[in-house]
Structures are given as structure tokens and as C-alpha cells.
Amino acid sequence: MTELKNDRLIRALLRQPVDVTPVWMMRQAGRYLPEYRATRKQAGSFMQLCTSPELACEVTLQPLARFPLDAAILFSDILTIPDAMGLGLYFSEGEGPRFKHPVRTEEQIATLGVPDPEQELRYVMDAVRLIRKELDGRVPLIGFSGSPWTLATYMVEGGSSKDFRTIKAMLYERPELLDQLLDTVADAVTLYLNAQIRAGAQTVMIFDTWGGALTPSDYCHFSLKPMERIINSLQREHEGQRIPVILFTKNGGQWLEAMTDTGADALGLDWTTDLSDARRRVGDQVALQGNLDPSVLYASPAHIREQVAKVLASFGAGSGHVFNLGHGIHPGIKPEHAGAMIEAVHELSRPYHA
Amino acid sequence: MTELKNDRLIRALLRQPVDVTPVWMMRQAGRYLPEYRATRKQAGSFMQLCTSPELACEVTLQPLARFPLDAAILFSDILTIPDAMGLGLYFSEGEGPRFKHPVRTEEQIATLGVPDPEQELRYVMDAVRLIRKELDGRVPLIGFSGSPWTLATYMVEGGSSKDFRTIKAMLYERPELLDQLLDTVADAVTLYLNAQIRAGAQTVMIFDTWGGALTPSDYCHFSLKPMERIINSLQREHEGQRIPVILFTKNGGQWLEAMTDTGADALGLDWTTDLSDARRRVGDQVALQGNLDPSVLYASPAHIREQVAKVLASFGAGSGHVFNLGHGIHPGIKPEHAGAMIEAVHELSRPYHA
Q1: Do B300 and A332 touch (CB under 8 A)?
Q2: Tens digit of pLDDT for each residue in A13-35?
Q3: Contact partners, residue B59, CB within 8 Å, separation at least 6
Q4: N or C: which end of chain B has fewer CB within 10 A?
Q5: What is the ipTM of this complex?
């Protein structure tokens, strides 16, 4: 494997010294980039874009051609696993992701298979291998998966949901059935992330987009526990390199202590938690990733710079910080505004690492 | 004024002893009730329902005819104030509330008038007076307003928003302009709530639906500070009775300490914070209101009862708890499920007040 030319991300995730704070953006390969929209159009559909290793590789690399980002993140969808389980993922205009075959009954859950990542999800692994080759060690590649709870919400509801009525009814009425579903999904996520690591992902992130919709005790049981089980089963070293694990629960700011105890190397934070408070709470146990409000990028470059400075000051001196947005970049953001943020992070963070 | 026959709500908000925990539901007069849907249809439009004191009174009282609730809450919309300011509120199918004339420029903000509640919002005050008369002291009447930040998001965006792009650009680029807007809205809210109190509201609640979309420091400056200014200007006694103030920031669980310092009598909580933790954090300074996940009501009555028991146990013994959902009741809930919750609260809370 090629040596990493820029290993800031990995070093920061492992709380090792860096020259400047590394920065990447959730959904950095996405609709705010005209070149992404062109490739997406060429692909025909979003799923065709995801399932073509060449096109997935192309869009993964697009933001790196524009910006001095410190990481690439695999372009894919969080719903590839349930799709590979046979739920029939499709995207309907204006409605977001949908499943043809939601999973709700005891029988459906019992017969759910765990996909072999190198078979049913081979297109993802091929994309990882191709991206690693094309990156040629410039920056590390981040692999990822949705969390079991987050995937289960889509699988049970059949798509996006505002109130999670079906899965929450299951949670209260048949908690053991939901546990069974989450166990199966956690097994699938574990295999999926380990396969990504073997294919070349140099760090992996678990996106728990909907864990924040739960009560504290339900979060611990139905979202955090399955994630902890995954983290404990991940291959944490590959070809002599440590593979850091990042855990991100959107709206999880109240539960950082519990998240820290999972064994993750780093926690992702949205913008509703101060990095200084978070750092005080988690101590030296984990690195922190975040947490600029993505809506800051609607402001002018000069004001973006001010807000970047505030986030950097909030974390303060020393390593263990990966700069990121607190959520995915909005499709309406001007690319040069993202560029202003990235430039400001590198420039303004230098004194904190002197 | 008639003596209150059931004063549990007021007593609990003031942390005085009660026989059982009082209970009401956000949006208890709403679409989950067939009788509400019938009156709404008869009114012709949602705004006609809001602006008719007779119909607003009718729907306010509907849930009390069904359930042994411990409070009535004025039926109205949070956007009556900006509508009275001339922004032209209307409701478009599937899009929610919209304003014909959003407020964005310096000039628009400078010329914004503060409505006289007994003139431009007289229909609300007439509804309050009529409801008080019809209630005849059965239970207290809760008045309410949206928070300045929450109202400002609709006024600047022109409607609902996912990312608050326009108001957040204003926040970062022209904070002094946003301050000016929030000052005007806070003045309007103060007059509005004081007028409701004089018209007969026996407690008032400030709904800060969107404060949780801010960073901690922006929340303190742009949402909490204006609410604190309002609370300090409210008439806290009327006709010899103390008027408790309830403050509710959705997704504000990380900021309870700061909310406690506003001088509010009670804090509303959504379901992402444990009542036991919250009680430990706020001490004896405020009462707590909440916090059953509204999606629990999708489960069966037996399971609803279990979850009610957990919320009651989480608060524990003693007064200072008003049972509520953590957010408005969903339109798809069966009325008898709401009934099961209310019954369970009264029945299961008795030992905690022995």
C-alpha cells in the first residue's frame, strides 16, 4: 500500500500532533458541486451513480480537485445494506429514499439475510479499491455505514419519517423483535465496514442520523449498544496502520459520555454542543470531529472565516480535532464558500498546533 | 373571577403539593380529534378557525369534554403576531404557513410596528375571555406565544424552513439587524402575553420551537436573551393570583441551566432529556413539564401505560412536575390512546404525592 502523503486526519483522530487542523465535509461529494450534478445526470439515476465503481470514484475525487481537503469519503448511500438484503431501494422524486419491501413482521425479520459484502455489495468494495488506487496516497479514504438504528428506521418505515411511528410502535410493543432486527443489521454493518477496511478504507465512520430521536434510555439500548457491538468487532488495524473509528449521533450532544465509552476513537458533533464543553466532558478518551453549522456557509466568505475562527478557538490548542460541518453541506451552497471555510481552517488553526 | 375548581396545574407549576400529577397535551385541541376536524371544516380555513373567538373557544373546549385534562390551552396559531404586523399569513396546502411579505431589509425591519393586542389581535383576546367564561373555573387556561427567535424564523424565511438559510445569513452577516428585529418581536410578544393575562390566561407558555437549531452561544444571544427580557416584563400576578410562566425550547436539553436563570417558573422538556437528570440540574428553581415521546401514543394502551409509568418514575416523588408530551400530539393518534395516557398519569402518579 502507498504511504500516506497527508496523514493529518488519521493523526488527529488518534490525538497525535499535526501541523494544522485537518478538515473535510460531510457530503463533500454532492449536489452543491456543478461537476457532481453533471456526473449524476450522466449516470441517469442516483442508484446508478452509487452502483458504478467508476462513477462513484469520480465523484468521490471531485471535491479534492477543487479544495485542499484532508480526506476523501467514499461516495455511497447509507441504504446500500438494506438494499442488498432485498428490500428494493428506490428514490422517488421529492420523497427521498423508499423501500419496496419494508420489514415489519416477525417472519420478515427472521428471514432477513446478512449480505456478503464482497458479493451483494461488491460494487461498494470495488469503488473503495478504485478510489484508493486513484488517490495514490494523497489523503486517507474514509469508509462509512449508517448505524443499525438509523438503517432500521428506513427498513421498518419504508422510507424517511418524521415521527417514526411504525418502528417506535415496534420499540414499545415488541422490543425483543426490534432487538432481533438490530442484531441482524449490526452483523451486516460489521461485515460491511470490515470489508471496506480490507478493501482500503483507512478510517470508518458510523452515521447515526436518527439516534437523537430517541429517549436517553432507548438511545442507549437501541442505538448505542448495537454500535458498540460493531465497534468491538471491527478490524482496528490493517497493513500495519491503525484504523480509527468515528461515531456520529446527530442531536446526540447530551450523550457524549456514553458514546465515549463505546471504544470509538472520535466522536462527531453537530453545532448544538460547544467543542470546549465537549472536550471537558470526554477528556483525553476520544478525538472530536465538527462542528460548524452548515448554514454558516450561506454567509459571505469573510463571515465564514469569523465562524471558523470561533469553532477553532472553542476546541483550543492541541491535537484531537478534525474540522467538519455539523451535518452534510446543503445543496444550495456556493462551492467558493466551502473553499473559504477550508482555507480558513488551515490558516487559522496553525497557532493552535505551534 | 371564578375560583379554580381544579388548580393542580398552577400548583405544580409553582412547585406546591398536589394530589396527582396534572396533565395536558401540546396540541390537545387538534386534528387527531374528529370533532376538531368537523369544526375546522365548518370554519372553511384554518385562519378562519383562529380568528373566530366562538370557534376557537369551541375547539379549545373539545378535548376537555372527552378527557379529564387539568388545563385548557388557548386554540390559536403562533404566527398571529407577525400576521398582525402586516406580513400576510396564509396556509398553502402541503407547505404549511407562509407569509406574503417576508421581512428582510433594514427598512422593512425599521418600519415594523408592534401590534396593539386589543386592536389588531382582539380576536385572540376575545377568545381568551370567552374560553374563561365557558370554562367557569373548571381548569386553568394556558395562554401562549411563539418565542421571538421562532417567530423571526418564519418572518424572515417567509415560511417553514429546514436550514434557516436567510435568517442565519442575517445572523452571521448583520447580527445587529437581527437584534433589532428580535427586539421588536419581543416587545410585541410581551404586550401580547400581558394582554392574554389581563383577558384571563392563568399561566402563559413561550414556545421556542426552533431555538434548538442554533449553536449554544447563538441560542443564548438570539433566543434566550429576548425570552428573558419578555419574562422580566410579564405581569406575574393577576387578580391576586400568581401567573406562572413556562419556557419550552424544543431540543434545548443541553441548555436547561441557562433557561432556569431566565426567571421562568417552569421549563418544558422534550423526550431526549431524562426528567431525573433535568431535576438534578435545575434543582428547586423551576418546575418541569413533559416529556413523553408523542410517538408512544402509536403503541397500544397497555404499552402507553408502561411508558407513562417510566416518565413518572423518572421525575420521582414530590411536586413540580406537569405531565405532557415532549411535543405536539401527532394528527394520526387515536383519541382513546390519548385518553389512556391521561388516565394512567392520574392513576399512577398518586403514590408520588402521598
Answers
A1: no
A2: 999 999 999 999 999 999 999 99
A3: B29, B36, B39, B40, B49, B75
A4: C
A5: 0.95
